[in-house]
Amino acid sequence: MFNFEGSGNGGSISKVTSKYFTVRDFSLKEEEIKAGKERVLAMYKAVEAFLIQNPVVAVCLNILFLFLFG
Fold it and tell me: What is the DSSP string of 24-70?
């Protein structure tokens, strides 16, 4: 789940919550969870960098999200 909060300086702070449900006796190791979080953070930063370099796309996405999620 993603939550966004205003940072007070015109930016925002995002918080991500993940829940893992496993099947039968399968278990996740802490190292696997940490590696997954690092991959998600890297992807998130890449998208952020792209949107900063392409503000028109960022505006279009904002309009789309407002339309879809009101």
Answer: TT----HHHHHHHHHHHHHHHHHHHHHHHH-HHHHHHHHHHHHHHH-
